[in-house]
Amino acid sequence: MNRPEHGRSLTSSSLTGLRRFRSSLLALPLAMGMLFALPDGAARAADGASLLQLGLFQREGDAWWAWDSLRRRSPDLADGLSPAVVPLDARRQGEGVALRATAPVGLDVTALCRRMLGAGFGCLVLDAAPLPSPSQASPQALPQAPAQTPLQLPETRPPADNARLTAPGPGGDGKADVAITYPPEAARTMAAIEKSGRRKGRLGAVVPDTTLDVMPATLKEEGWNLCALTFDDGPHRVVTRQILDVLNREKIPATYFPVASVAENQGEVIRDFIAAGHEIGNHSLTHADLRAMDPEAQRHEIAEANRILRGFGANPVLFRPPYGRYTPDLLAIAREESMSPVLWTVDTRDWQVRDPDRIVQHVKTEAGTGSVLLLHSTYPSTLNALPRVIAAMRAKGCEFVTLSEWIERMHQLATPATVMAPTLVNAGMNAGAKAGEKAGGAPLRTAN
């Protein structure tokens, strides 16, 4: 899981650059042929929006990085375009993706593509039909690249959820919410993380690059039983808000790691989490496997997610890598961005089983002193299980805190007061201090 990503003779950055260059070369001859073969009326799309293809890529994250590069380097060329990433073959995984964009009606797309090619970008005029993808975004913000789309690798269909979803309330845009699908290898990754965590102490299981640790026996001796509920992914327009309602009703502070490109258009629910005293963490911009990206793209995934979340009043100090996959280099980049990388001690497997009874039973069996639970904010089955999960943890004597406070208090237990390491103060939490006071500790902080 932690294999090195960057060789000494040919770096990951070089390989990524070669892939992008190859994609541009692939698009170039096609684009030139289409540019001169299309009738003038079709190219100008007088009767409808034109569809452009801006490149072919192996991974979704690379495609969105190319789009952001276009916006940063040549904003005039990206102005007015609505981008999306679509699979080249929806029936087969690993076949690559295309970066496409719709152009506004009346735009001379032939001239635009010539300018893009001249600036070193790929461009191909496909047709005058609307873009058939849900992953669209306004030209004023980084495009959505929701992990909740068919772009994720397929998995075996899980048991159906037992909950009914209510229709989105007023103000919704009517788009369907589909929870992230995890590829089969994700189960192996999650199992490896859990197995590794059992060999470590509690702190080492949650903070993968820490040099400190606290064993469960020490926690029992100290009568220490702080626990943390953490939620990944989304937000889902219905399920996430109902999970927030349960947490507020039970008066439990939690830590939520949304996918920033999805959260970008649902700022109200992020603000509501903050206002209620919950913590917002960083779960990357697009929920891609960041190990496959070059360092610049990895940093962009973290920094851009922070920018979006800070716009809603959060101040993330925790970074949870998508799928729990990381390399030492990725952890170092997260640290450079003033983030503390975090995992969990108990994976509830809600993403896999989608069955409330099995989720609750797993928590009863596996959770214990000082547990940090991994749940997801997008599954109706998680919502149905949550009240019973909370009850089961309380029956074990758990006192709930945010993950930042859990790490801070654990760090105090592991480190003598005279040699305490510097901490990061989570100042972006409107009600964070209340949650910390309730748990009997200091304001929310994260230890390096």
Written account of the structure:
- The model is unreliable at about 1-15, about 20-45, about 130-175 and about 415-448 (pLDDT under 50).
- The radius of gyration is 23 Å and the shape is elongated.
- The strands form 4 sheets. Strands 5, 6, 7, 10, 11 and 12 form a 6-stranded parallel sheet that branches. Strands 2-3-1-4 form a 4-stranded antiparallel sheet. A two-stranded parallel ribbon has the order 8-9.
- Strand 5 (about 225-230), helix 9 and strand 6 (about 255) form a beta-alpha-beta unit.
- Helices cover about 40% and strands about 10% of the residues.
- The protein has helices at about 10-35, 40-45, 60-75, 75-80, 110-120, 185-200, 200-205, 215-220, 240-250, 260-265, 265-275, 295-310, 330-335, 350-355, 355-365, 380-395, 405-415, 430-440; strands at about 50-55, 80-85, 95-105, 125, 225-230, 255, 280, 320, 340, 345, 370-375, 400, 425, 445.
- The chain is an alpha/beta fold.
**Residue fraction in strands:** 5-15%
Radius of gyration: 23 Å
Shape: elongated
Task: Note the main sheet.
Answer: 6 strands, parallel
Structural class: alpha/beta
Low-confidence stretches: 1-16, 18-47, 128-176, 417-448
User: Distance N terminus to C terminus?
Assistant: 23 Å
Task: Tell me the total number of β-strands.
Answer: 14
- Roughly what is the average pLDDT, rounded to an integer? 74
Helical percentage:
40-55%
Number of helical stretches of at least 4 residues:
18
